[in-house]
Structures are given as C-alpha cells and as structure tokens.
Amino acid sequence: MKRQTLLLLAIILLGLNLRPVLAAVGPLLDRIQLDTHLGHVGASLLTSLPIVIMGLGALAATFLRGRFGERRGIWLGTLLIALACLARGLVPSATPLLISALLAGAGIAFVQALLPGLIKARFSHDAGRLIGFYSCAIMGGAAFGAALTPWLAQWLGWSWALATWALPAIIACLLWKRAAPADEPTTSGSAAPLNPWRSPRAWLLMAFFGVGTAGYTLVLAWLPPYYTSLGWSAESSGLLLAALTLCEVTAGLLASSLLARCPDRRVLLSFVLVCLLLGLIALVLAPLTLVVPICVLIGIGIGALFPLSLVVAQDHLDDPRQTGDLLAFVQGGGYLIAATSPLLAGLLRQYTNNLRLSWLMMAAATLVLMLMAKRFKPGSGHFHTR
Prior knowledge:
By secondary structure, the protein is an all-alpha fold. The protein is built from 15 helices and no strands. The chain has two domains: 1-182, MFS general substrate transporter like domains (Growth Hormone, Chain: A, Up-down Bundle); 196-379, MFS general substrate transporter like domains (Growth Hormone, Chain: A). Helices cover 79% and strands 0% of the residues. The mean pLDDT is 86.
C-alpha cells in the first residue's frame, strides 16, 4: 500500500511538471521579446515548438516504450525538462530559448507518451478517474507557472525565474526513481496490437483532442499578452492566467468525479463546450468588464475538456497496451493540430496587431467540437488491429 501511494504521488508530481515550462513564458513575453528581439512569430514558437515535439513523441510512443521502457523513459523525460529550464537561466538569448523549447517538448513527450499506458496497467479498475486527476495536475502546474514566475522575475530577472522550474523537475526525477514500478514484459496472451491509423474513430478522437487542446494552447500562449496590450501589468496578466488555470483544475476535478455518474460523456461535453463558447465570445466583446465570467467560463470549458477528451478515448478499449497506443495516437496527432493555434495567433498579431480574430476563430472551432461530440455515443466506435 505504501509503494502504491508513493507511485500515486509520483504520478501527480510528474503531471505538475509538464506545463510550467510553457505557462511561465506568457506573462513575461513582452519582456522576453524586448530583451531578445524575438518577433511575434518567434515568440509563438516558444509554445508551438514544444507542442510539435510533444505530438511527434506521442506518435513514437511504441518506439519509446520498446527502446527505453516506461520506467527509464519517464525518468529521462523529466530530466530533459529540468535541463531545458536550467538552460534558460544560463543562456538567456533568442536561439538558446528556442532550443530549450525543443528540449522541453522532448521531455514532456516522453512522459506523456509513456505514463497513460502505465496508469491503465497499474490502476486498471480506476484508470479513467486517475487519468482525469493526472490531467488536472498538468493544468495545476500551468497555474503555478503562470502565477509565480512574474513575481520571481522581479527578484531574479526573467531568465532565472524561468530556470527555477528546474527544481521541481529534479525532485520529480528523484521521486520517480524510487517509486516507479519495474517494466512488465509483454505477454503472448495479450490483446492484438492496435492500428489506429486505419480507424476512422481513432482519427475522430485525435481531431477532437487536437482542436480542443488548440484552445488550451492559444490561451496559454496569448491570453497574458492580450491583457498586457489592454493595459494590464505582467504580474496581473500572470495572475489572470493562474486564476483561469485554477478554474480549469477545479472543473477537471469535478468532471473526473462525475465520470461514474455520466457513462454517456456527451452530457458533460455539451455543457463544457457551451461554457467555452460563451467565454470566447465574451473575450472578444468585453474583455475588461467581463473578466471574471471569462475566467470562469473558459476555465470550465478548457479544464473539463482536456481530461474528458482523454477519458472518451480510453473508454473505447480495455487492454492497457492498446489503450496506450490509442492515447499516443490521439495525443500525437492532436498536439500537432494544437501547435498551429499559437503560431496562427502570432501571425495574426504580427500583421494586424490584434488577437481578437484568434478568439473568434477558436469560437468557430468550438462549434465544430459540438458537432463532433454528438458522435461519442457509449459503445460506438470500432478499431482495427494489425
């Protein structure tokens, strides 16, 4: 029991380390651009590049599992995150920042590609709820990164404020090394390998996760700069992102707790997508006067949508290895889709000096998600094996 509890703590701590390296950048972006001469497109790459690498890493999950194993691969990924954070303090200039973004993306990819399958195998009877809590830990890490980094920057400067996030990653490395279970060999009696590339349902799940996560990455990268352009300080915009992320965590926890009562996930999906749509519309029409409703509505929408997207995918299969392969495919392609969101927003800001069009585009994408969610009837969807 003690070892199982330690493993649970390690999983939560791993989740907490998967977003500060991204969320910490937004509130300081104006200052970083001023000191490093990064343009709006270059600044957007600090978020887009890690997400692209996260997607490619997820697609390579089977290779990573075979090459490193889950225990060593997750440890290596966490170490890469720590090194990426530390590099930002040591070499605070444009090119090294972009390289650190690639390094962080690789580290996050290792963890996200390997950990869901391990959760499904070790906690098979409660995997859906634990994946939901793990997803909430990911969003909680984003809240800490957004809220604390601007205040640390006042004392340490922006580069070493970003570097401080190496410390929790190092702690996670040490805890994982002690708590991680030994890798289990694949048995000949296990289910046949899954080939998601041949399944229309797998592509639908991937697109749903990708478009939904595009909203998360767009807010993560550009909400603080949007509000600083409206006259807010870096500290205030960071606190806004942190408050929104706390709403995300709360919504994710509530959604995860309600899973047992809602076998038809479409009920929860419909509610959270309506919240997201209303929040995005308010962000365009009245970003200053409706800031609290915006924070709550977008927080509910994004916060519950992220874990629900993963849970809906893992609902389709019972075998842990097949589930890991499906989630790797869904997250891999999904993150590649999501990576385009901050980049497009950066391009729009560079040529129009306005982010409102980006929020409108995400609102239109949310309407598409509503149509897609109608197809997730319990028991539907078929998968091919190779």
